[in-house]
Amino acid sequence: MKFITINLSLPIFLFILVATSCLGTPDEEAELDPELTTCIHQCKHQDKYSRDDKQECTRGCHKYHQMKKQRERQIEEQVRRRKEHEMEQVKEKQRHQGEEEEEEEEEENPFLFDDDDFETRFETEDGRVRVLHRFTKKSNLLRGIHNFRLATLEAEGHTFVSPCHFDSEAVFFVVKGRATIGMVREEKTERFNLEQGDIIRVPSGTPVYLVNRDHNQKLFIAKLHMPLAVPGKFEAFYGPGGRNPESFLTAFSWELLEAALKSPREKLERLFQKQEKGGIFKISKEDVESVSKVKGSGIWPFGGRSSGPFNIFKSPIMSNQYGRLFETNLDDHSQLKDLNLILSFANITNGSMTAPMYATRATNVIMVSDGKGYIEMVCPHVSSTHSYHPFKASLKPGVVFVVPTGHPFIIVASNKNNLQLLRFQLHAQGDNTLTFAGKKNVVKALDKEAKELAFNYPADKVDEIFSRDEDLFLPGPDSYDFEEHARAYA
Ligand SMILES: *[C@@H]1O[C@H](CO)[C@@H](O)[C@H](O)[C@H]1NC(C)=O
Ligand SMILES: *[C@@H]1O[C@H](CO)[C@@H](O)[C@H](O)[C@H]1NC(C)=O
Ligand SMILES: [Cu+2]
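# copper (II) ion complex -> structure
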């Protein structure tokens, strides 16, 4: 409170009195705030004040008003987080009580996640971090991937995302935008520039920050977290920070901090009061330039494996006029190997579709990055008039669909736009995608004798039906009423 001079203390004191008695009216405009009006009024009617004093006094009122608002926002945020936490606990309890019941009572689509299934971890004017609910929150059928969490980060142009570390392994994928990432290793920070399609692993506990170095374009990053401390949960720890983001250092006792940092409490308080801008905030062009300067090419210089980013769009592993598939592989991308993770990106041409297919080992977490389309997946776990229940969902940006191991599915792009999908293949070691139509297909590969027995039909006639020239991506249906399907299963 260094900015208040002694002779201003009376109106400030009055202001505090009024202010503290009226907390809880957060929505009022600054101009209309009666406390502020009163304070300014008090300033103007102090007879012994000079004009300068009065101005100083009024400035004090505004400053206080700002601080009060800030505090109110912080309290609101705390209350909100606490409520969310409580809700989660209640739900967790209900989930445990329901665990004994059979799994066949699913009402809604347990594999489909949309906007409502994301919770906002934090939000500032300049960006936000959202985390998808635990997969098992929706259905026990997904308990095989309970310990994975999907999150997204959005940041406006020219912003800084404060350094923090996670109690989880994490992999970042740049869906849109241009960024610089800084990762603090033992003795120095390594910076890398990131472009659309770049993938980088952020090892657990590594302090990491980001810069959106583009002026106009929003930065959008999809993140997969693999929690290590508490299964299915991960947290961010902010060290370098202040009040907001709140540095975890300030939660220690002052005596210990004073001793650890060999500084008196006042000095520490001063330091930890400075940062109030939150986890994501705008920075100047000059700051962007200096904090996004990257040395060298980002290639690890000692002939060893690179710890830097690599791009998924290098070369498609499958490409025809109906679509293109890009995929990492475990041998070339050692960063992802021990995470047992493959990422792929499919760009399905408008009006086209995939062959019916399934993953032999992996569970696919599919996130729509652009365009519209439609998915059908069949599942034996949910009772239906058939042995397999068909789950159908329309796909649009922000939607996440989970296809568990072995579950056959087909994806269709709308007639208007290409459908672009990011896919995290979890438990990917040894995974293979098998299709039921196209140049290579499972039915064609089935030996003749078994094929005839299984279908009770001549093998060459069966092959005629399943074989075709295209592979994986195929022309879509002619008479497919996309709108109608989308409505029916939205
Ligand atoms: C997907 O394909 C379309 C058409 O070829 C192209 O314009 C678009 O840039 C592609 N998307 C990505 C992310 O490469
Ligand atoms: C795909 O989009 C192009 C250009 O917008 C359009 O000319 C074409 O007819 C579309 N394809 C289908 C199958 O609707
Ligand atoms: Cu199933």
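# post-check
The chain has a mean pLDDT of 85.
The chain is about 25% helix and 30% strand.
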